[in-house]
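User: C-alpha cells for Nitrogenase molybdenum-iron protein, alpha and beta chains, please.
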Amino acid sequence: MTYIERPRFSCALGGALSTISALPRVVPIVHATSGCGANLFGAYMGGSGFWGSGYCGGSSVPTSGITENDIVFGGSSRLNEQIETTLEMIDADLFLVTTGCMTEIIGDDVEAVLRNFKDSKIPILSIETGGFRGNSYNGYEGVLEKLFNDYSNENTKKRKNLVNIFGLIPASDPFFRGDLVEIKRLLEKLGLEVNTFFTNDQTINNLRNASGALLNIVLSRTYGISVAESFKEKHGIPYYVSEIPIGPTATAEFLRDISKLLEIDNKKVEALIKQENENYYKYIERISDVYADSDFQHYAIVVGNANNTLSITKFLYEDLGWIPKFSVITDELDDNQKAVLNDRFEKLNVDKEIKLIYQTDASKIEEHLTNIIEVQKSEKYHDALSPLFILGSSWEKDFANKVGAKILSVSYPILNRAILDRGYAGYNGGLHLVEDLLDVIFTGR
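Assistant: Done. Predicted C-alpha cells:
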C-alpha cells in the first residue's frame, strides 16, 4: 500500500459531494458517519480558494450520521428517517444519496430504502461512493454517469448546435467556474449552445436535456472520458478530448478542432480567432515594455493535477516565453493514463528541456526537486535556475521559500487566495495568468 503525505485528492465521496453541491438545486444526502461529510466539505471549501458550501452544502448537508448501534443492526431505518426529514425541510429539484465506507461495509440496501419514496414529487437517486471505490475524480465521474444514465431524458430531440462540457472537476480544479465561463463564451461566439452544468446560468434542465447534444467536449486527457464514453454508448453522442486551452496558441487550436468536428464555416472561426488574438495582444503589448526592460523571463516549475499541469506548462513555454524545467503531476494515474500524458508532453517538449515527473507525496516532490537544484549548485558551471517561479499549490510554499523562488498557487489545495470567477482557460484566462504572475513579481518590490 502506498503512503501519501498531504494528498491533493480525497475519497470518492469527497469528489461526489463537491460535484453534487456545484450542480444547481441538487442536494446530497450523505448516508455515512457524522464526520465524513463535514470533513470532506471542510477540505474542499477551504482548499479550493474558499469556494464555500453552496446551496444546502457544507454543514447544511443532510446526513444520516449513523452510530455504533446502526453499524451493528443496520442503518437503513436511519436513512429512511433522514430522507423523510429532508423532503420535509429542503426545497430541491433532485436529491442524490451518497454512501460512505461504513454503510457499504455493513451492506445497507440503499435502493430498497429509495423504493419507499418512489412516489416522491422530487426525484431521489443513489450512488455508491465508499472510499475504497476510488478517489475524488472517480466520485466526479460516478455522479455524472449516474445522472446521465438515470436522470437525463433518453428521447430528447437533437439540437443542432448544442454541446456538453466535461472534465473540469468542481473544487479539485479550483478555477473550474471561471474556466467554464470562458470556454462557454468562446463557443457561443461560434454560434453554439453550451451545457456547462456548473456555471451560474445553468439549471436542472441542462442536465435533463443533455442527451440532445451533438458533441461532448472533454477538457481533460484523464478525467471525464468514461462519462463521455458512457454517454456515447447510451445516447450515441461522439466526444472530443483536449487539454484545458490556456492562451492564444492552445485556444486557437481548440477552436479550429471544434469547428471542424461540427462543420462550422472556417471563415467564421478564423474571424473569431483574429478578433480574440488582437484583443489579447493589445493588452500584452501594454505590459511588454516593463516585461522586456526588467527581464521578467523566469525558469518555472509547475506542480498540479493531470488537468492543468500540461496546459500551464504549454502556455509558459509557447506564449509567455518562460523556461519550464519540471512539470510535476500529483495524481494517482494508471499506466494508460500516463502513456497518454507522456505522448502529449513529448509533442510539447520538442527540445527535451522539460522533465515530466509523477509524484503524489508532497515531501518527496520537495526532496526530489531540492536535490536536483543542490546538485546543480555544486557544479562549477551550472544552470542556476534563477530567477525561479513555482506554479503549484499551497503545499509548495515552504519549498519555494527554501530555494528562493516566487510562487503562485494555481492547483488544489489553494489556501492563500480567494477565487470567485477567476479562470485561466482561453484568451481571457491567459491574460489572467500573466497578470497574476506579474502581480507576484511586483509585490516583492
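User: Anything notable?

Assistant: The chain has a mean pLDDT of 92.
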